[in-house]
Amino acid sequence: MPPRRRDRRRPRDPSPPPPSDARAPPPSASGIRITLLAPAVVLVLVLTVLGFSGRLSRSPPHPQTLQTTARSVYERGLVKRDISSREILAEHTRVSEKRSQRQFPNPVLAYVTPWNSKGYDMAKLFSAKLTHISPVWYDLKSDRNMLVLEGEHNFDATWVSELQGNGSLVVPRVVLEAFPAVILLEKMQKAKAIDLIVSECRDKGYDGIVLESWSRWAVYGVLDDPELRYMLGEALHSISSKSSNRHLELIYVIPAPRMKELSNQDFGPEDLLQLADSLDGFSLMTYDFSGPQNPGPSAPLKWVQHSLTTLLSAKGSSPSGNHSRMIFLGINFYGNDFLLSRGSGGGAITGRDFVHLLEKYKPSLQWDEKSLEHFFIYSHEGVRHAVFFPTLMSLSVRLDEARNWGTGLSIWEIGQGLDFFFDVL
């Protein structure tokens, strides 16, 4: 992500699109985009120069009730390329009654955000499929020359205890928003930052944290400061989790490589190797491939493969080794609705928004052979839209890729998807 941290994938009502503030764009991906998408005739329209809006409102409560059925989505024949709007509308709230049966054998990290309260319920219902659950609660900020950890008010002791009782590790996300110089220049401030985080974990009974800092700190050389890295890792690893009897875990959020040639500010294979001994995992953001200047699929499979190949290419790392198993491959449960005329607009949508569009426009879903994602086109008040949203088939393809590499999954985020997505996990 760019230096100004985006409120990632926070949804808005797509019909009609409201006036909005600009959302900070992701780094350009044009270096590999031409290879991935240019041959698709329909996508030529989609990939025209579009604007991208970002006023993202809270979704209202999901209006439909989860239903269970004896048969999974595989047994009902729903994991396919030629899926129809009618089938999705009829089946998306129905999940297998065997909620504890896992289809994906590796670790699964699920993010939950306060602005999509449905995620809290889904985390409890499907905790048997989720090894790690990360509520997006905390920010470490600068207040003049002081450090402040904000977000304690989000803590829900009953919810955390229930998840841990079901066997999931609760590892809240902490975003380092503090001005980097405040921490990097003074050893005492480094110790203060670590103490704030570790104390919160101990006081609240967490199993560790998910740390996000790369996007904001890359230009300050945070990974060139091994003292901060090792101090935090060692501090967490020295404390045992009350729920798991293991040390507290430290998972680091990393951006996916955007270009074939990495720049100095990109997270690369050498960075992964340098951090591996201090961390327990990497949450790899293989989503948000498309943006204001290059709208289209959220996570083209070739880009996902390119990201894994790049990060695991360093000497001493291999797909079959420990470093591959440390990666939580990013999977999006949200989608995007882009405008194809009037030159601007569009943004992130949730499953609720997607269902609304299917009900209203009854579009024909198309399977793009290049990105291996579904999309559809619709018109609203004379304005053409292109919608990219995950389906059971697109998710299944990416889970197969994760199995082949031996990686885990990280899902952004489970309050935004369709209910039957959980059957593939």
UniProtKB/TrEMBL annotation:
GO terms for biological process: carbohydrate metabolic process. Residues 1-28 are annotated as: Disordered. Residues 106-425 form the GH18 domain. Residues 14-28 have a biased composition (Pro residues). Keywords: Lysosome, Membrane, Secreted, Signal, Transmembrane, Transmembrane helix. GO terms for cellular component: endomembrane system; extracellular region; lysosome. GO terms for molecular function: chitin binding; oligosaccharide binding. It comes from the Eukaryota. It is found in: Lysosome; Secreted. The chain crosses the membrane at residues 34-54. Coiled coil: none annotated. Residues 1-11 have a biased composition (Basic residues). Belongs to the glycosyl hydrolase 18 family. This is Chitinase domain-containing protein 1. It comes from Panicum virgatum (Blackwell switchgrass). The lineage of its organism: Eukaryota, Viridiplantae, Streptophyta, Embryophyta, Tracheophyta.
